[in-house]
């Protein structure tokens, strides 16, 4: 992940959890979701103002549904925003996103704790 890209993102989206050195993540998947958004932005899929508006809408929906807004669910909203924009921009269909999410869930279920999760053909069945 480019430090310049991360700095640009944190400047454009003030809600990103950060410290003096940049964005902070509580789990590896959060950093992966952040990096995917940076990559898609760099490829022109969306602008930061477009992303910030979509993320704000996602957070508002979650709060209206009872999300306590403690900061612990920030990257869940980030991921939902990422999936929504990827589908709405035609990068991948909602069906494809669900297929891969289910495959990752299956792969995680069969992977012993502490081992890397690897997708295999049977995870897509």
Notes on the protein architecture:
With about 120 residues, the protein is mainly alpha-helical. The protein has one domain. The chain has 5 helices and 2 strands, in the order αββαααα. A two-stranded antiparallel sheet has the order 1-2. Strand 1 (about 20) and strand 2 form a beta hairpin. Helix 2 (about 30-40) runs parallel beside helix 4 and helix 3 (about 50-65) crosses helix 4 (about 75-90). The longest helix is centred in the middle third of the chain and has 17 residues, at about 50-65. The protein starts with a helix and ends in a 15-residue tail after the last helix.
Features:
125 residues; 5 helices; mainly alpha; 2 strands; 3% strand
What's this entry about, in short?
The chain has 5 helices and 2 strands; from the N terminus they run αββαααα. The chain is mostly helical. 14% of the residues are buried.
Biggest β-sheet: strands ordered side by side in the sheet: 1-2
Count of runs of 4 or more consecutive helical residues: 5
Q: Helix share of residues?
A: 55-70%
Low-confidence stretches: none
Shape: globular
Largest sheet descriptor? 2 strands, antiparallel
Q: Strand percentage, roughly?
A: under 5%
Provide the fold topology:
Elements: H1 3-12, E1 18-19, E2 22-23, H2 28-42, H3 48-64, H4 74-88, H5 94-110
